[in-house]
Amino acid sequence: MKKHLLLLLVLLSSMPLFAQDEVLQKLDAKADFYGDIARQLWSNPELGYLETNSSALLQKTLSDAGFQVKAGVADIPTAFVAEYGSGKPVIGIMAEFDALPGVSQKALPVREPVVEGGAGHACGHHLFGSASVAAGISVMDWMKENKIQGTLRVYGTPAEEGGGGKVYMARAGLISDVDVMLHWHPSSGNAAGATSSLANISTKFRFYGEASHAAAAPERGKSALDAVEAMNFMVNLMREHVPQETRMHYVITRGGEAPNVVPAFAESYHYVRHPDAMVVKEIFERMVKTAEGAALGTRTRMEYEVINGVYNLLPNETLARIMHKNLELVGGVSYTAEETKFAEDIIKTYPAGVKVSPGDAEKIAPFVVSETGGGGSTDVGDISWLVPTAGMGAATWVPGTSAHTWQAVAAGGMSIGQKGMMVAAKTLTLTAIDIFKDPSVTGKALEELNKRRGDGFSYEALVGDRKPPLDYRK
Questions:
Q1: Is residue 182 within 8 Å of 92, Cβ to Cβ?
Q2: Closest by alpha carbon to 150, among 161, 159, 142?
Q3: What one-character-per-residue DSSP string does 411-434 give?
Q4: From which residue to which does the signal peptide run (predicted)?
Q5: 19-197+312-453 and 199-310 have identical folds
Q6: Taking Cα atoms as reference points, which of 96, 120, 127 lies closest to residue 106?
Q7: Backbone angles phi, psi at 168, to 5 degrees
């Protein structure tokens, strides 16, 4: 009997172990380390395709930990792929790190920019990148300790905010052998459902006319601004005649130089969104017709450039349920008294009718499955049509905070954001480990992907064959 027991103990000792508490404790021990990385990114917000320092810091962190890093992939200077291990399964974790223009803000619960009109991490991508790197290193350490077979990759994906970095990385074949892709996003709550997003095409329409003195010789001028305004008027009329789920919005990025000069050049920047990528393509084609009509009516010349185009997220319930289980295990974000006061002050800045409590950050949303797109768009959508993909949101912002606001920047620059970041890092870690422990999950996830996207699916990037728009934020 003792011999049999001894043999069993020897066999068990040779098997890969998963000390779940130990993995989480190691992440807790490095929370300050990863929090410092996030603060460095937050303090130096860099716009899409211009994230030189942010990308370099994340690359160095991964390289120092033992990953092999390949930089400048897909003709994008700030994109990278960090890899550890070999063979199957291949699990990817995506990391974003670009900021947004015009939302500079100090880590205070009152509106106070660091630099007036400057950039800021209003979508929390400094936390996104840092948590994904933390998860990648945590999973790698577990793989080393337990001699786990398989490949782990961290994808550094620039310019999510309108630049579509993941689209070009996918088009370059960088995910063609990936079995499962994991991601997360900062949020005002904790959730890991199988949900979707809106497909989107964004385009700059440029009109070229002829300058003239607006008072002395207006008849000689051909106003490019007239063309922009005519196009925008027709686009606004379209709103009555598109599916109700459609979202169309624009800004005039160039409208002329002086009132007494007929503008020879003008430009507007348009977004078209819908839960179905094919509907987006149809509406976009109608939008191009309005631009052509505007040019015809104003005797100007029109050109357009598709800046970005992304698919809607394709849910994967197989993977999402694993992630949701792990999020429930990790739990939400608990505030200190100081953080509660910060949150209460932030909540006071919300519009009337927003009913939330600081304690909501501790809650985990129920698991849901939905193919109805939410309010935003992401280049993760393209990835999800090519590789089984699962994501989650963590409460890095005060409950009730909207993305792309100064309130999001403020919380993302202090301990509330960093606590939510570690919730994401832990959940991603446990989810990747679960899949490495049971690689059969990848086959089930792929079967679901094939069923959802339908027979005969052939991926065609909505950006066409254009090169990455490396100057779209310049």
A1: yes
A2: 142
A3: HHTSHHHHHHHHHHHHHHHHHHHH
A4: 1-19
A5: no
A6: 120
A7: -70, -30
Longest dimension (CA), the chain: 108
Asked if residues 379 and 125 have their Cβ atoms less than 8 Å apart, the reply is no
Q: Which two tokens stand for residue 55?
A: 């990308």
Ramachandran assignment for 415, one of left (phi > 0), alpha (psi -120 to 50 degrees), beta (any other): alpha
Tokens representing 179 are 């079995």
- Residues 309, 312, 313, 315: what is their CA dihedral angle, to the nearest 10 degrees? -160
Q: Where are the alpha helices (DSSP H) in 194-316?
A: 224-238, 277-298
- Burial classification of residue 255, based on how many CB atoms lie within 10 Å of its CB (0-12 exposed, 13-18 middle, 19 or more buried): middle
Compute the distance between CA of residue 474 and CA of residue 469 in angstroms, rounded to an integer.
10
Tell me the C-alpha distance between 130 and 54, whole Å.
Answer: 10
Name the 3-class secondary structure at 378: coil
Q: CA-CA distance, 304 to 336, in Å (whole number)?
A: 51
Looking at residue 339, its pLDDT comes to 98
8 Å CB contact between 309 and 201 = yes
Burial class (CB in 10 A: 0-12, 13-18, 19+), 118: middle
Could you tell me which CATH number the domain at 19-197+312-453 has?
3.40.630.10
Task: State which residues of the chain have pLDDT below 70.
Answer: 1-18
The SS3 assignment for 34 reads helix
Rounded to whole angstroms, the Cα distance separating 93 from 428 reads 8
Q: Locate 153 and state its tokens.
A: 């990759």
Could you tell me where the DSSP H helices lie in 15-67? 20-29, 31-43, 52-65
**285 near 467, Cβ under 8 Å?**
no
Q: Classify residue 101 by burial, with Cβ atoms within 10 Å: 0-12, 13-18, 19+.
A: middle
| pTM for the structure as a whole | 0.91
Report the alpha-carbon distance of residue 420 to residue 331 in Å, rounded.
10
Nearest to 97 by CA among 138, 33, 44, 61: 44
What is the domain class of 199-310 according to CATH?
alpha beta
CA atoms within 13 Å, Cβ hemisphere of 285: 6
Structure tokens at 255: 């409208």
Contact by Cβ (8 Å): 271, 248: yes
In the prediction, which pLDDT does 389 show?
A: 98
What is the predicted pLDDT for the residue at 289? 98
Q: How many CB atoms lie within 10 A of CB 350?
A: 17
Domain locations in the chain as residue ranges: 19-197+312-453, 199-310
pLDDT at 20: 86
Question: Which amino acid, residue 383?
Answer: I
**For residue 2, how many other CB atoms are within 10 A of its CB?**
6
Q: Could you write out the DSSP letters of every residue in 307-325?
A: EEEEPPP---HHHHHHHHH
88, 52, 80: which is closest to 172 by C-alpha? Answer: 80
